[in-house]
Amino acid sequence: MPDCKEKSILKLASTQDVNGAEAILLSFLEEGVDTLFGYPGGAIMPFYDTLFQNSDCFRHILTRHEQGAIHAAQGYARVTRKTGVCLTTSGPGATNILTGLADAYMDSTPLVIVTGQVVSSLVGTDAFQETDILTMSMAVTKWNAQITNVRDIPAVMAKAFYIANSGRPGPVLIDFPKDVFSAKFAYSYSPCTSLKTYRPNYHPAPELVDKAARWINTAQKPLLLFGQGIVLSKAEEELKMFVERTGMPAAATLLGLSALPASHPLYVGMLGMHGNYAPNLMTGETDLVVAIGMRFDDRVTGKVDTYLKQSRIIHVDIDPTELGKNMDTDLEVEADAKSFLKSILPLLSKNEYPEWIDQFKAKLEEEKKIVIDDDVFPSKGKIQMGEVIRMVSEMTSSGTVAITDVGQHQMKVARYFPLDSPRTLVTSGGLGTMGFGLPAAVGAQLGKPNETVVLFVGDGGLQMTMQELMTITQEKIPVKIVVLNNGFLGMVRQWQEMFFESRYSSTPMQSPDFVKLAGACGVEAGKVYQREDLYDALKQMLDHDGAFLLEVMVEKEENVFPMVPPGAAVTEMILGSS
Amino acid sequence: MVREYLVTTLAQDRVGLLSRVAMVFSRRGINIESLKVAESAMKGITSLSMVVHTDSKTIKQIIKQLEKQVEVLQAFAAEQPNENIQIENKLQYA
Ligand SMILES: Cc1ncc(C[n+]2csc(CCOP(=O)(O)OP(=O)(O)O)c2C)c(N)n1
Q: Which of A135, A196, A321 sits opposite B64 (nearest CB)?
């Protein structure tokens, strides 16, 4: 934003009083925010008017639904590691972001949300478009507050940004009664760097680090499980050093993907229900698990009473509520992943476990033979999701950002789109929010304007937020959209096939003509039915200058394997249905 | 095993504090059987005391969840003393 400094309200604020809306914009500038996602309405109109007058300093993305705005802010935050900012009006505007808040809370995504509220004198009277968003959002925000006095804005905004993006990050919502936007006061800002009652503990206790190092140095079959904590603390380099020094095999959770290059020789794949065979099975053989920045989600542990029973467990997380919540472990270390890795590195002895690693390789071979080869190199039948995903990954460079929606295609992307650079996967993990993908892709592309952003989305999920195609056109966002159309709510259909005797209750789904729909929204589009046309179609999409939607008609009743059946131990993972 | 606990939470007072604290219990299906909110001896810090019935693993998690709330300075739980222990103590002093 080159002209921003010149005309900036920053200047204004040093000479005269500003109003509440200006103070919010000033706090954005102080916090380095220049991209906003939102949707106007009555209660927040004074803010939008001020934004209009300062449009040289900010890029505001008008989505087509507030859910789109918050998911876009999430996509932006996830790829940049900055705080995403989202604005909505009161009442329905505010309630429309609840799903995004829940998603961001689960997946530790730093967001600051500004909601408009009815004027102070009407708060609590069921006024037009009033909703008690503070109470409603309490369970899905890290912190929230309502401004009652314009003078509180700088301190509260500073606190909001600090809380959102420190410790375990998360969403913070600040509610502004309409009159606050226009009230004037003398502005001054100081960033928040600590709070009396909120003190995230970044540094691990030295005696715990010593103990962890001793255990690691003497383990026979150690296994590293890493999660998004690595990405959030920007510890990718330290993780690599840790793995290379200790020689231990490393497995990722869904949100940990991309923290260690998939091509790294010690990377052994993804954990969990549809993860890789080897790391899941080997949790039954390991004698020491080092779990860093992950939370033993039930999709990772399977039946928890049998998980890692024979193993010692070291659990490192910045959020103490995660320690001992899902799993009783042998060493709980409250620390930020980066800090932990930095302090333990000098204490580790150089090790290698060739035989132990060979066991993983053998299991990978089995998985390849029975599942992967047919998924990504099928020679007959309809197009398979896996081959589309593999092809896109082969046709794009390593900085390419993959976005997914939720369902079968999501698991296939996690499995078959190898990620070699940090923060190149954006997916809804903890909440599994269908409709997340398209708006998240918008935000991710804005966060990484020079990278190719490819969204993989199901026919079901696309229909949840497809109105954002219009945002893509209006804002000229060059995302590539691959619709993997199987005519079903695929993941639910798979469960019906496996556990409900193929009673396909409400899962067959008709779709609009996506090519025409994209066309009507000004997005170039194509459709492909046959394997022999796939490469050219993908090439056309990737070469196109601007947004492109490619609908790929895939096998209708394809399943995702391997799978840990619900309620089973992860060591009972199956490679197929027979 | 379910026991009676007295949970004390020291927190910076502000609108919505009680809701956030109550939420930690309600989302785990735990009823707050009695509640006392009072100013503490420390300026600006409120003390909330709650009596609940739950097991020791859950109470540990609840304490951490309470402390995770931005306004909360500290939370701790005391277990209702077991009668046998009381008897032992009495014997000691006898
Ligand atoms: C908002 C929301 N509603 C319902 C679900 C349950 N659900 C999980 S996967 C899935 C099917 C997704 O179908 P589609 O988008 O076509 O993707 P596919 O599984 O076929 O790849 C459903 C309905 C969900 N995750 N999110």
A: A321
Range of the domain at A353: 206-359
Task: Answer yes or no: is pLDDT of A363 > 50.
Answer: yes
Confidence of residue B86 (pLDDT cuts 50, 70, 90): low
Flag if A197 and B16 touch (Cβ within 8 Å).
no
pLDDT digits (tens, 9 = 90+) for A481-539: 999 999 999 999 999 999 999 999 999 999 999 999 999 999 999 999 999 999 999 99
For residue A348, the CA-to-ligand 1 centroid distance in Å is: 44
Is residue A225 a part of any domain in this protein?
yes
Query: Are A322 and A403 in a shared domain?
Result: no
Angle between helices A45-53 and A20-30 (to 10 degrees): 60
**CATH code: domain of residue A13:** 3.40.50.970
| Domain span holding position B23 | 3-93
The interface predicted TM-score of the complex, written ipTM, equals 0.92
Query: In terms of domains, do A46 and A174 share one?
Result: yes
Residue A366: inside a domain: no
pLDDT tens-digit series, residues A251-279? 999 999 999 999 999 999 999 999 999 99
Phi-psi region of A501 (alpha: psi -120 to 50; beta: other; left: phi over 0): left
CA distance A351 to A357: 12
pLDDT at A15 over 90: no
Q: Do B70 and A325 touch (CB under 8 A)?
A: no
Residues A349 and A406 in one domain: no
Record: contact B12-A196, CB cut-off 8 A = yes
Mutate: best of A120, A133, A147, A198, partner B, most B CBs <10 A: A198
Residue A568 lies in a domain: no
Task: Give the C-alpha separation, A482 to A479, whole Å.
Answer: 10
Report chain B residues whose CB lies below 8 A from the CB of A321.
Answer: 61, 64-65, 68
Closest residue to atom 17 of ligand 1, CA basis: A458
Residues 6+ apart with CB under 8 A from A122: A130
Q: Is B16 on the interface with A (CB under 8 A)?
A: yes
In a domain, A198, yes or no: no
pLDDT of residue B66: 98
| Number of domains into which chain A is organized | 3
Residues 6+ positions from A355 with CB-CB distance below 8 Å: none
Same-domain pairing of A180 and A218: no
Residue from B64, B65, B74 whose CB has the most chain A CBs within 10 Å, to mutate: B64
